[in-house]
Design brief:
four-stranded mixed sheet; 5 helices; about 180 residues; alpha/beta; three-stranded mixed sheet; flat; 11 strands
């Protein structure tokens, strides 16, 4: 298991390694495997890049990104059919100059009818080579998909989240997967 002291050293080193992050203005602390980023970023893309860099460090089990920008909050509202549309809308504005944070208030209103998609989602987990599907269980209820269990990395957690969002008619995915390194 990676110690907090090691994370306190490794995360700042990883931030320095990323050209999209000005690590001079970002600090990192660790407690019980949870890393907190603090400091100031120039824009949302830098905040996101710092978060992705920290998530990539071995032993990071949780992350709080408390970095701040100067101004430039954007709020998105409306409704779309799929989660990937909602995410694409946020991505399209977060890299604009001056944007430091995006509040994505877009709701998901699918045209497809919800059916109990539990078995289809579990089949999808089994098809993904980078998911250890036997450690993940899924419950579904009226458009909500709830994967639970443990995964080995942030990448595996994200892969399970995306597979769960692929269920036709899904309106909410809760991600209670824990990272066990």
């Amino acid at each position: 298991m990676t110690t907090d002291a090691q994370l306190h050293r490794d995360v700042p080193e990883e931030l320095k390694w990323r050209p999209s992050v000005n690590a001079v203005h970002i600090g990192a602390t660790a407690k019980n495997g949870v890393v907190t980023l603090t400091g100031q970023v120039a824009h949302c893309a830098e905040k996101s890049a710092a978060e992705e860099a920290a998530k990539g460090v071995h032993g990071v089990e949780g992350l709080a990104n408390d970095t701040l920008g100067k101004n430039g909050w954007v709020t998105l509202t409306d409704s779309l059919e799929w989660q990937f549309h909602k995410d694409a809308a946020a991505r399209s504005v977060r890299n604009l100059m001056g944007v430091i944070a995006v509040s994505n208030g877009i709701t998901i209103e699918p045209e497809a009818k919800w059916t109990d998609a539990r078995s289809k989602i579990e089949d999808s987990f089994r098809r993904h080579a980078d998911l250890e599907a036997r450690r993940i269980s899924v419950s579904t209820d009226s458009g909500t998909v709830a994967p639970t269990g443990s995964v080995a990395s942030w990448a595996e957690r994200d892969q399970a989240w995306w597979a769960a969002w692929s269920a036709p008619g899904g309106t909410l995915v809760t991600n209670d997967l824990t990272i066990v390194s």
